[in-house]
Amino acid sequence: MDQSALLAVLLTIVTASTPLLLAALGELVTERAGVLNLGVEGMMVMGAVAGFAAALTTGSPHLGILAAAAAGALLAVPFGVLTLNLVANQVATGLALTLLGLGLSGLIGERFVGQPGVRLQKLQIPGLTDIPFVGPLLFGQDILVYLSIVLAVVVSWVVFRSRTGLILRAVGDNHASAHALGYSVIRVRWAAVLFGGALSGLGGGYLSLAYTPQWIENMTAGRGWIALALVVFSSWLPSRLVIGAYLFGAVTILGFFVQGLGVGVPAQLLSSLPYIVTIAALVVISTRRGRARADTPACLGQPFVPDR
Amino acid sequence: MSASVTAEAGAGRGEAETSEFLVEARGIVKKFGAFTANDQVDLAIRPGEIHALLGENGAGKSTLVKMLYGSLQPTAGRIFWKGEPVVVTDPGRARDLGIGMVFQHFSLFEALSVTENIALALPNASDMNALAARIASVSRDYGLPLEPRATVADLSVGERQRIEIVRCLLQEPKLLIMDEPTAVLTPQEADQLFLTLERLASEGCAVLYISHRLEEVKRLCHASTILRHGKVVARVDPSKETAASLARLMVGADVHAIRPKHARVAGPTRLYVDQLDLPANGPFAVALQKVSLELRAGEILAIAGVAGNGQSELFDALSGERRVDRAGAVVIEGEPCGHLGVGERRELGAAFVPEERLGHGAVPAFRLSENVVLTRDSIFADAARRLLGFLDFRAADETAARVSSAYDVRKGKPDPEARSLSGGNLQKFVVGRELDRKPLVLVVNQPTWGVDAGAAALIRQALVDLAADGAGVLVISQDLDEIFEIADRIAVISRGALSPGYDAHVMTLEKVGLLMGGAHGGSEAIEGALKLREADGRAY
Ligand SMILES: Nc1ncnc2c1ncn2[C@@H]1O[C@H](COP(=O)(O)OP(=O)(O)OP(=O)(O)O)[C@@H](O)[C@H]1O
Ligand SMILES: [Mg+2]
Asked: What span, in angstroms and rounded, lies between the C-alpha atoms of B198 and B193?
């Protein structure tokens, strides 16, 4: 493989991994607060259509980014009302949210099908970006790629080092105790759900603004579910989430590449490879530690109703 | 100590008048469905007063203090804070007022460290390292030593109790509510706590203190309110009462002493533990080192020790929650079973009662009958049903009802969820559930945690009777009085090592203390216990 081909592959890996990382980071925060939102796919696809539409009508991909995040958070609102305030079942509500998102986005996006979109520009720093090979890889990405990495670091820091994160983990671990210590469980969970929605929306927006700047119905193609799985397999740790997302992106793209070379491997095997490799890798990481402790937030998926 | 408060203090005062009371509850009624847990309760506490709230299991003590703390809302009645009417809508509001509470069933976060658990209660704590250092030193001063970096999930109930207390003390509340804080502490830890409480009271902090240990109430408290069936039946100065008269007020009848059991006959070996090693399962956990013991039919072997010296680990290894590779390390009824799980050991005729009743001994959201099924599924269905996986819920209902009546489990409705039971009543239920099986081997950790004097006597009597009927009973307890009352042989666990079991009548408190020696505060524990005993006017 020559250098330019390798560069192309690496660049595609980054773009394939970024939406997964964004959506999964959001879901990680939501689940750390004890809320299981299975509507990631729906919020992503709403982000995709909203981002595309906003960028197309205003001509600004940056407004598209904002619209994508807003749309994701907006779709999380009914989820929050139903599961947090009305104590509906989180699993069922999340599944319904995915269906709602897919349907609604199809409806909204009908008139955008086939239209060329606005592409989010890649960074161009004179001097740095021009460095061969390393330049485009490190200094020539679009802002969402950098944002996703920065967010991973920030989320990791906030969750494990800040007081906000401590409260978030406390609410996810034992909501009754958190309530007894005077914290508003519902308010913390609302914030986490909205944050999760916004990041899922961003992940979706990345697809329609950077990955393939166009609108196709169901264009998230199951990435929301992968993001959900990544959260679990990373044991709710942002650092592992980065590894998992990039590993998944890498194996997917390498699969395409190998297929393109016409190697005689069954396509089905190649397309299942990312799942197998990612799961295997994350399982190995999480069992390597001295002792296996379930990192699952203990209250995950459980509705909170204070005693009266 | 301030002068004691006597009857009827606080009733019928004008609201506008500045109150001499820090907190006052008037006419509090609490109903759970048709069941009335609190009925027209009045309670008033002055600043600097240590006020005892007494009553038998299920009298409504926890319910009342939860309303003061805002975790429950009264059905009727009002609460006054410094003379002003307040509505304590939620615990956050209570904390703003300056109320701190130590819950009977702890409010801790298992996945978090001790430091993090405490930081959550201190809004201004930001530097975790500084806080950890402060916890280590302050907890030692309080006589309730904590390892700041340990994860709560790895800690025993006694250690968790210490965290709850230290966390509450660090909040510097104006009103400190303590719901049975000493039930799982050693005498020495309790002594230290009393010194701390007395100091806080002298600084003007009011303490509302719930306990079933009447001797400590007599020593510590300036005033008391006694509840029976949700109603206030008396307000007395506990220092002027005897433990027996207090108990009589609570129960409305005399509490009986344990019937002495007949002479022990050494029967066949029921449980045999041979050189059991168990690695520590965390950086702050205890490893068991070459633990050996033999439990014979007809005897009660008690294991004494300060919390956190390997009691939980020993219990886990005996019950099969943690298995060991060497089958012969644990032998039940002649069957090597070190490698077997809990269910398989039960089938050999063993029964186990863990120390943590809510969440470990019983599933909080399950009904009592469902909780019965959990430890006895195998006996319910006949072979055919069992093959198909059916459960016999009628038998479960009957068993739950039988246990409830035999062990006087008081509850609001016939088959309530485990979490709605009062602490002592749930304890009676989880112990009774295992006793009801008539096991050949019973391993029980803290059998009378939080049960009132009458019920404690009932449970101890049941343990003695079970042994007399030919079972082997292993009791792990921090309550030395209990141990001396029922045990035939006594062993002491210290830092994961178990002493030989000595005959109870050659064992003295001094000897127990020496054996505890390795552990922190071993000898002081004994001094504390001796002091308590002197105050008690009894001697061994
Ligand atoms: N959430 C609830 N739902 C229904 N009944 C309840 C609930 N909480 C408490 N009760 C009932 O109210 C009564 C009083 O309970 P409470 O916990 O106040 O007793 P307690 O005095 O603290 O007893 P203990 O000494 O055993 O802790 C009990 O009979 C209990 O079954
Ligand atoms: Mg209680």
From this structure: 9
